[in-house]
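Researcher: Next sequence.
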Amino acid sequence: MDGVAAAAALRSVLHRVKQAAERSSRASDRIRVVAVSKTKPVSLLREVYDAGHRSFGENYVQEIIEKAPQLPEDIAGVPNLVMVETVDDEKIANNLDRVIGNIGRKPLKVLVQLVKHVTSSCPNLEFCGLMTIGMPDYSSTPENFKTLAKCRTEVCNALGIPEEQCELSMGMSGDFELAIEMGSTNVRIGSTIFGAREYPKKQ
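Model: Next structure:
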């Protein structure tokens, strides 16, 4: 996929997000679309950036480190990293917390799967929501998403915070519209914008 096609795909995704938000009586500007470039080259990211998009993601730290020096600071500069979505292990949370404390920057936003540990033991991490992955069986997706949305409600009740303060990262290329209708505030779109992943061919 070339950059022009990726930018056009992004516009299509944003339009679909707007429609899905309207179907659930929500404001589309409250939904974050994270363009996940995975194995794609920097040139493709730049085309999407030049089309006005500013929320990008990578699946692996190494990809961020390699691409960051070639990109504008407001998109992927590691010192300006805004959020880590998949904090699902206490060791990872502790390491992130220590590093953020050592470099003296503002707390790093995290979407987590271990709320209690982050809120009680990691002062340099700012809990701001849940990162979820539903089951791959799309026929069960509605019930799946209802369960995940209910989990957010339960977490917010336990923490004594309003649900508006707790993001719900739910939905990817195959199901993001339904995820938005079910309450997602953050969708992670990879292949729909950038095309299928490309891996080096084995020799």
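Model: The CA atoms of residues 104 and 124 lie 9 Å apart. The beta strands are 32-36, 56-57, 83-87, 108-112, 125-131, 167-169, 186-189.
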